[in-house]
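Design request, C-alpha cells follow.
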C-alpha cells in the first residue's frame, strides 16, 4: 500500500516521528506502516533550534540516511519550506523529493495563507508524486480560540486544497467536538498531533481523523531516558544499572549490515 493509500483507511494512520537513521529503523522495526520526521528533533540533532533554522543540506543528508535505512514510506517535515520565496521552496522540495521521500509537511506558521498557497503550488510542480500535507497553526499557536480557530482552519484548508495539497494538518486541537467539525468540513484527510488530552486513536478514527502524528514526543522521550541514565551514571558509576536501563540487548549493527 503506498503512502497516499494509507490515508484512505481502513485504519487510522499513526506516524511516530524519527530524527535520524537509527530512530527511523527502530520505529520501523516496531511495526510502523510509515515514518514521519520531526522538524524539531532533526534540528536539535544537528545543534539547531526548530523554526526554519536548519540548513537544507543537513536536512537532505538526514533524509537520505533515513530513506536508505527503512523499507516503509517516509514523509519529511520541511517546516515552512526554508524560504519565503516560493521559487526557492520549489527548489528545496525538488531536492527533498530526490532523497526518496513519499511526502512532505509544509506549514503556514499562522502567517499569510496566500504565501503558503504559493509554496504549495511550487511544491506540487517540483514534486508531483509527493503527498503534500499542509499545516495550519491557529490551534497550535493559539492565534484564535474556539469557533474562530475552527472557522479559520477550515477556510485555510479549503484554500490549501485548491492550491494542490493532499492532506491537512491541524496541530494543537484536542477537543473532540472541534475535531469532529474539522473532519466533517475539511474534504482532505485530516491529520492531528499527539498532545496531552487528545482523544484515543480509536476515538479519533471514529471522529473522522485519518492521520495521527507523534511530533517531537518520541525524541523527547528518548532524551528523557538519556538524561536519566546519564545523571544516574554520573552520580554513582553503576554499570549494572546503566546496562539495565538500556533494556534487552539489541544488535544495532545488524540493523545496518549491508546498508
Amino acid at each position: 500500500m503506498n503512502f497516499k493509500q494509507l490515508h484512505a483507511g481502513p485504519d487510522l494512520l499513526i506516524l511516530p516521528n524519527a530524527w535520524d537513521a537509527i530512530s527511523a529503523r527502530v520505529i520501523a522495526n516496531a511495526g510502523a506502516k510509515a515514518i514521519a520526521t520531526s522538524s524539531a528533533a532533526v534540528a536539535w540533532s544537528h545543534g539547531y533550534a526548530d523554526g526554519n533554522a536548519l540548513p537544507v543540506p543537513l536536512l537532505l543528508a538526514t533524509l537520505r540516511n533515513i530513506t536508505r535505512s527503512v523499507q516503509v514510506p517516509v514523509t519529511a517535515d520541511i517546516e515552512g519550506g526554508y524560504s519565503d520565496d516560493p521559487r526557492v521552496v520549489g527548489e528545496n522540495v525538488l531536492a527533498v523529493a530526490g532523497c526518496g521521500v513519499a511526502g512532505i509537511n509544509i506549514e503556514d506558521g499562522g502567517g499569510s495563507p496566500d504565501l503558503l498557497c504559493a509554496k504549495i503550488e511550487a511544491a506540487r510542480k517540483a514534486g508531483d508524486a509527493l503527498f503534500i500535507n499542509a499545516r495550519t497553526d491557529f490551534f497550535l499557536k493559539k492565534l484564535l480560540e474556539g469557533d474562530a480557530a475552527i472557522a479559520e482552519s477550515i477556510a485555510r484548508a479549503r484554500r490549501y486544497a485548491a492550491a494542490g495539497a493532499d492532506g491537512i494538518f491541524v496541530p494543537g486541537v484536542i477537543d473532540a467536538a472541534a475535531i469532529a467539525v474539522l473532519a466533517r468540513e475539511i474534504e482532505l484527510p485530516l491529520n492531528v498531533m499527539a498532545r496531552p488530552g487528545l482523544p484515543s486513536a480509536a476515538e479519533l478514527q471514529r471522529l473522522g481523523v485519518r492521520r495521527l502524528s507523534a511530533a517531537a514526543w518520541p525524541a523527547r522521550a528518548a532524551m528523557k531516558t538519556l538524561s536519566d541514565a546519564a545523571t544516574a551514571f554520573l552520580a554513582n558509576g553503576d554499570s549494572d544499572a546503566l546496562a539495565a536501563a538500556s533494556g534487552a540487548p539489541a544488535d544495532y549493527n545488524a540493523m545496518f549490515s549491508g546498508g
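Comment from the thread starter after seeing the answer: thanks! The mean pLDDT is 96.
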